[in-house]
Amino acid sequence: MVGKGGVMRTVQSLYQKATGKRSAEGSGSGRSRMKSRGSRGGGRRRGRGSRAPSPSPSVHESEEEEEEEVRGQDASEEPQQQEASEEEHEASEDGDGGEDGGGGEDDEEDGEEDGASGDVPKVWERGPARLPPRPIPFERRPLVRPKGKRGWETIVPGDHKRLPAGILGLLCKAHFPGMVPLRDGGEEPALTWAHYKRVPDVPDEDGRDFRTVADRVVGELWDFFRVEPEYRDRAVRWAYDACPKLVTDMHHEARVQAVRSYYAKFLGTKIDKKQARTIWPSKEEYRKVIPWWCAAHKPCWDYFVARWCDPEWQKQHEACRERRLKMPGPAHHQGNRTLDAYAASWSQAHDGRECPPLMAWALAHKGKASSSTVDYNPEDGPEAYSNPTVHARLRQYTEMAREKHGPEWNPSTEDLDGEIIMRLGEGKKHGRYWIGDSTLDTASTPTLSEIRARSSSSTPPIRPRPSAAQLQFEQSQTQLREEMEAKLQEQEKRHRAEMQRQQEEMQREMQERDARMQVEMQRQMQMMLHQWHNNGMLPPPLPLPPIGTPSPTQGTPNISVGSNNQPVSPPAAWSPFPPYPRPPPI
What we know:
This protein has helices at 11-19, 84-93, 164-174, 193-198, 213-220, 232-266, 273-276, 283-287, 298-308, 311-325, 339-349, 357-364, 388-405, 418-424, 448-453, 468-534; strands spanning 2-4, 7-9, 143-147, 151-156, 179-181, 187-189, 226-227. By secondary structure, it is mainly alpha-helical. It is elongated and about 160 Å long.
């Protein structure tokens, strides 16, 4: 038996924990909690019983404790310019896709390796798969502080290197409510964070009761972190704001992860997410790879499987996927990092150069932070960025910033002006700013109504933010215009070259024709002269000299036309007639 924290554990219990046959995570004290379940899948009995142990991931599906947390921060500075209805539709109907929508470069296969034994490939889940062991002494928990809009900053390190958002994602899985009862007597799976808020909580062994499952998820976050008292309220609000997307991402990844797990476990093949999104297993195959967080809620998993196998859902899924693939280039190159983390990585890779927010935002849409060729140049055109709209936003922001602060103001070295971003993007759309969404502080950024109230004729106007359809139409128009201009220039170039060729050909033909005519005329004159001589007749003077005879009017080549020298008698020219004798003097 092994003793730890006053609790005696047998070797069998440790083996069961390592092999995933028992729960791996309990409450804040580290002990498992018992939870009574009613007859309704994930429903609870009315009695105030203790919580049941949360299913743990198997060793095959779990990653190392220090695995990088891909779901840690909301790194997607730039969505794919989708409408809110499209985003909500994909969140509820499309079973895959993460927050980056296929844009991030580092969010796909980081941490994937072949199994150590070489028998079955390991397929890591996106983000961490295990919670750090509890309990953690309060003074040894990392001290964190909210930063920006959704970010976190570690002030004092602790026993683990996890990020709050990664722990929240695991807590959302560990406390998944399953099927939630409805008022009309039916039930539905907990697909959203609102379902977590509707399910009542039950006390654990330590007597902690958080009122709802949502409150328990956020409350247990502080079993792993501590925060300064003056930042406590803000940190709690940050945690509640992060959970809705974490729950959505959990369901987005479920189908793709199930496909990859099935191929790894039963076919011995490791496939990436891009391949998994195009594979549609059968219901029986899906049921063989139920994830650990849904193992206690099989009716809920059956609901997911039935939806994924529905031909209408598959058709809609493919339509959404095709729409996302139309996006030109990746959304950004941050990967799983926040914009501040990207700026720090870029500075480290470029000899400690400073990287202000706007510059970091522009570079994140150019390439990886570690690339030596990624640098900011305000003269770069749209082709330098992963998405042409980034260049348009930078240009509009620079113009309005200099209109407000003066022509000498350099926006790439200053902090982001939240008011200018609000004016450019017509406020927040779908909860996001037009530029630097995770960097702007909502507390210090004025709202659109406040900006309208203090606007005047001398202030920059509030511009409407173009929709996704407008941006796509403008991009298509720009691309078509550029293609037409390129075609016209190419046609004009070919036309000029053809005209030049025809002109040169015409001149050459005229010269050859004149030469042939002259040769023919001289030949005819010589024949006529020869006939006259044969007939004993004196021919008239020829208009042209014989071939090879210089013209009498040509003179020497060294005498210029305008020379003042005395006229030189031309050389004796050939003549077919003898010279006339001069008459004798009278």
